[in-house]
Amino acid sequence: MQSIHLVCPCLLGIEGLVADELRAMQAQNVQPQNGRVLFEGDVSMLARANLNSRYSERVLIQMGSFSARTFEELFQGVKALPWENWIGKTDIFPVKGRSLNSKLSSVPDCQSIIKKAIVERLKQTYHISWFEETGTLYQVQFLILKDQVSVMIDTSGVGLHKRGYRANSTDAPIKETLAAAMAHLSRVRADGHVVDPFCGSGTILIEAALYAMNIAPGLRRNFSAENWDQIDPKIWLREKERAQDLVRRDAKFEGIGYDIDRAAASLTLDNAKKAGVIAKVKTECRDIRDFENIEERGYVICNPPYGERLLDVEQARGIYRVMGRVFERKPRWSYSVISPDDSFEECFGRQADRRRKLYNGMIKCQLYLYFK
């Protein structure tokens, strides 16, 4: 199969990281945009991106993009695309998507029109009038933004942030893709000593371990496109072997998790075991007030608790003040703290050396980086 147009949706603020990792995977024509990165490659690249992307939410095949302000324009634009290249006579092809700042604002109506257009195209190709949809799943997605339509097929299935190790989590977990981005932005090394004093379900520590050891985050899960006839199973096997060969098995990484909740500390270890990094992670039940960095060098990376209610906000700010006292300036130590609270630096007691705007889902946050 020839080169495919692909797209990786991602959290706002980390498009550059996604673009860089795709280039490192040898993707072609990589173009970062708001909330997504466009690129090209063959079916091997499709598999490689699913297996190896730390920061993307999905890998989608970009079927086409066009302008549409009427349902007729939407219908004709979708019908003109080569759906038969992927969808067979018996395959399942549900449609879902979003419309933002566009004339065609009704998502259910757009779903119906897109589905009808695909059916009409396939009717002409296969010369049948009824599609039983009992076969392989090809999830169609669409985005209509400012009257510009993008129509795609999802190759991932469950979102890429679902690595497979976090069946259970504590309250207010951080997304795996965001935790991986925090490890990257904190410049964690293969021999890094990483501490998370609010470890919760262990996401930050586990993602830091996967990053430091260069373990592909998708190695322990499956993808929708693994069931597709167009992709030889040998391609998936080859890409998994390639990813295994790139693992830094001699990495001296160590992750330490503290949490005031003993159950959270235990859950971190359970999840680390599922992720295959249990040998690199330790936990302890400890309050932030008792934090101390006794090692020669290290990275503190954390997502301290924060609530929307007034009492929770004041409690969170009290925690920030404690952090400001116990996170001492120390050579060869850095602190990375993510928070949606604009008053974080004031509570913490000093300005960050660098700040990075990131989104945890739809919540706008800042990553405060202290390294001097």
Which secondary structure elements does this structure contain, and how are they paired or packed?
Layout: E1 4-9, H1 15-24, E2 28-33, E3 36-41, H2 43-52, E4 60-67, H3 71-79, E5 95-100, H4 107-126, E6 140-145, E7 148-154, H5 176-185, E8 193-196, H6 203-212, H7 233-245, E9 254-259, H8 262-275, E10 281-285, E11 298-302, H9 310-326, E12 333-339, H10 344-348, E13 354-360, E14 363-370
Helix pairs in contact: 2-7, 3-4, 5-6, 6-8
The CATH topology annotation of the largest domain reads as Rossmann fold
Rg computed from alpha carbons, rounded to a whole number of angstroms: 23 Å
Tally of separate domains: 2
* Share of residues in helices: 25-40%
Order of H and E elements: EHEEHEHEHEEHEHHEHEEHEHEE
Sheet with the most strands: spatial strand order: 2-3-1-4-7-6-5
Total strand segments:
14
CATH architecture name of the largest domain = 3-Layer(aba) Sandwich
> In one word, what is the shape?
globular
Mean pLDDT: 95
